[in-house]
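Worked example 3 (structure in, sequence out).
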């Protein structure tokens, strides 16, 4: 089909441009059409004014001109801002960029021609323009072209003209053949523009009304198909197999509780009650356990695993990393073994002989509980009577992987997903739909709040002197770096370079190890064991330690080039300390001056509640990227915004449920999915 052909089949797209398009995730002709213009940046050429004609009541207007100067300035209050002066011969315009907009001026220099939209106010010597969007006008580009023109995101040497030309060619192909990508009944019933009309209008709208109609259609389409995908997935897991009815808490659960070195917190008790009741129900449990980092989820899952074992069934817990699997295995053995429950560990580094033995034990039921990584979903793993499936740090697993694990059971097993990534309610609704949710807020008692500090790199020596002092008192520390090896392209500290620097300099004589994802599993294990046992005092690591690692004696974390991390990730990282009774510290080092980065670090410094941080992250980054849908095994949204389009989302959910419950409707959706311009929805449907 034409939309699957490479973009380079289009005139004007040679190998170089094809390469640059790939940076925008555009491979095929279909991708060209699926790459929507920036939604607030269309240019209406009938509206281009002379600078002298601009009205000055603060309205958004469009004008063109040549850049006279680009300068950095300070306001009277000492705030930095950038100023671009433009003239078209009729008058001058001063365009202001404040705060985070300042970096927008980087690509502009005196002498180049630009098209500007922005809010215009009067000024002393020139028009003052704010909230501006600047677009370079290429040589020979005709700005008198009539109509409303799209503005695309660009990469490399690509120009707006390149993309517009490519889109026009692709639209010509679409005019010949373009199957509908929504069930026809829905398009008619909702009065949506047809697919071709909508695609034409989103790229080259005849009017803003048509543009809006096209946008509405694609927002609906995206959310509807996403909801159909989720429905399909759930239906797929919830087969007609029977659920398992567990008995009331018995001896093994009691023994496990008895053996704990602490009392459960009120939150843990409540979560456990909810889970326990779910398990006693004949209907399969589908529960999400949300608890901030360090809130003590592992012990709750241990009780659930004990419960399934004491009922003569098997339980498994899948975790995303080898390190985490090791650690959970140790914890679960400690809690469950004394109670007479056989626990095993299965990962990619399990030796062949042991592996064979474990596979046998799982198949004949001798093993009650297995902890593992992705290895658990491999085909040769079979269970005698799997009744409970737990996934930890589940945002690392896709829907499909969870389904594969659940499908290893002869029953419809109870499913518990645990996450330390607090998912805001709105996103939970999209991703989990009808999953029940238990929330554990707060931390176990006796923890002191982590002190979070942010320093520029000129304080680095002092920071590491502090590390040395803490280590001298018997504490342990993490040093987290964004990259493994030094790369010229990115000014980020690499773990190996920092490790070398520290052992030769400030941490000379201190037992200091390196941990990163490219090391062999056995090496990683050895290092982790050393750190857990206290033999290693300082662990210089990449984000491999981000999830789940639990070493209570580690009370200090230094995050190098902290601005390179997102809020959610920083919070996860910080959660590695503050797990013991000592005062813990998290020091973020940065030389960033980008306002976005500084805002992020400031929020981190002032806020330790993961749920609050998640909401802030949502505000800062928008719903599309937050804890990306992709992390849940779903495609990112391209045009819909979960927050803004909430009402459409809810409607789409109902419609998806109705459509998918009807075999004819489901077939129609399947066909529609196949006719998408790319395969991002196919993956959910396993098409
Ligand atoms: P997370 O929710 O991040 O997975 P963990 O399960 O790793 O947290 O627990 C973090 C630490 O808290 C562990 O050292 C665990 O032993 C401890 N812990 C858990 N529950 C309690 C409790 N009720 N009282 C005291 N310490 C607890
Ligand atoms: Mg955990």
């Amino acid at each position: 089909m034409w939309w699957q052909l490479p973009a380079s089949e289009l005139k004007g797209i040679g190998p170089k441009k094809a390469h640059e398009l790939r940076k925008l995730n555009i491979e095929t002709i279909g991708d060209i059409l699926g790459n929507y213009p920036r939604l607030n940046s269309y240019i209406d050429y009938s509206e281009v004014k002379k600078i002298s004609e601009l009205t000055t009541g603060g309205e958004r207007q469009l004008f063109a001109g040549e850049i006279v100067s680009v300068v950095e300035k300070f306001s009277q209050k000492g705030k930095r801002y950038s100023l671009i002066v433009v003239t078209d011969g009729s008058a001058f315009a001063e365009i202001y960029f404040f705060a985070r907009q300042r970096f927008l001026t980087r690509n502009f220099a005196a002498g180049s021609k630009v098209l500007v939209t922005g809010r215009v106010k009067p000024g002393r010597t020139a028009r003052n323009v704010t909230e501006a969007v600047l677009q370079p006008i290429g040589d020979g580009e005709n700005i008198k072209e009539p109509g409303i023109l799209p503005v695309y995101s660009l990469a490399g040497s690509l120009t707006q003209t390149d993309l517009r030309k490519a889109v026009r060619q692709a639209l010509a192909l679409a005019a010949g053949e373009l199957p509908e990508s929504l069930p026809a009944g829905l398009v008619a019933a909702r009065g949506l523009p047809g697919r071709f009309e909508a695609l034409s209008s989103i790229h080259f709208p005849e009017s803003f009304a048509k543009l809006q109609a096209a946008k509405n259609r694609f927002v609906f389409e995206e959310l509807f198909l996403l909801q159909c995908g989720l429905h399909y997935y759930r239906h797929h897991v919830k087969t007609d197999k029977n659920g398992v009815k567990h008995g009331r808490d018995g001896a093994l659960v009691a023994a496990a509780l008895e053996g704990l070195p602490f009392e459960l917190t009120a939150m843990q008790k409540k979560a456990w009650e909810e889970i326990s009741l779910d398990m006693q129900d004949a209907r399969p449990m589908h529960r999400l356990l949300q608890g901030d980092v360090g809130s003590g989820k592992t012990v709750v899952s241990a009780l659930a695993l004990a419960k399934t074992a004491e009922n003569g069934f098997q339980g498994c817990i899948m975790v995303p990393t080898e390190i985490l699997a090791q650690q959970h295995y140790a914890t679960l053995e400690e809690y469950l073994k004394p109670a007479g429950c056989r626990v095993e560990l299965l990962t990619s580094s399990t030796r062949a002989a042991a592996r064979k033995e474990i596979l046998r034990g799982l198949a004949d039921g001798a093993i009650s509980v297995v902890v593992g990584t992705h290895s658990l979903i491999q085909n040769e793993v079979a269970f005698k009577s799997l009744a409970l499936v737990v996934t930890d740090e589940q945002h690392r697993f896709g829907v499909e992987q969870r389904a594969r694990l659940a499908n290893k059971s002869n029953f419809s097993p109870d499913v518990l997903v645990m996450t330390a990534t607090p998912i805001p309610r709105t996103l939970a609704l999209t991703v989990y739909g009808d999953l029940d949710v238990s929330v554990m807020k707060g931390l176990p008692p006796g923890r002191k709040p982590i002190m979070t500090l942010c320093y520029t790199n000129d304080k680095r020596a002092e920071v590491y002197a502090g590390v040395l002092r803490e280590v001298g008192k018997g504490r342990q520390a993490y040093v987290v770096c964004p990259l493994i090896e030094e790369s010229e392209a990115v000014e980020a500290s690499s773990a190996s370079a920092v490790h070398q620097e520290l052992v030769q300099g400030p941490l000379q004589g201190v037992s200091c190890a390196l941990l990163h994802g490219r090391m062999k599993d056995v090496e990683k294990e050895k290092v982790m064991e050393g750190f857990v046992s206290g033999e290693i005092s300082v662990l210089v690591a990449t984000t491999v330690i981000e999830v789940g690692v639990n070493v209570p004696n580690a009370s200090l974390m230094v995050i190098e080039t902290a601005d390179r991390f997102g809020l959610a990730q920083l919070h996860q990282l910080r959660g590695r300390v503050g797990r013991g009774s000592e005062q813990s510290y998290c020091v973020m080092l940065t030389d960033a001056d980008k306002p976005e980065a500084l805002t992020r670090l400031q929020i981190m410094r002032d806020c330790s509640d993961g749920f609050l941080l998640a909401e802030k992250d949502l505000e800062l980054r928008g719903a599309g990227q937050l804890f990306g849908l992709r992390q849940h095994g779903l495609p990112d949204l391209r045009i819909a915004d979960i927050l803004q389009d909430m009402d459409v989302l809810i409607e789409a959910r109902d419609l998806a449920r109705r459509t998918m419950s009807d075999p004819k409707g489901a077939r129609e959706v399947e066909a529609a999915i196949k006719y998408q311009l790319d395969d991002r929805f196919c993956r959910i449907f396993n098409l």
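Notes: The two ends are 17 Å apart (CA to CA). The first helix runs from residue 15 to 23.
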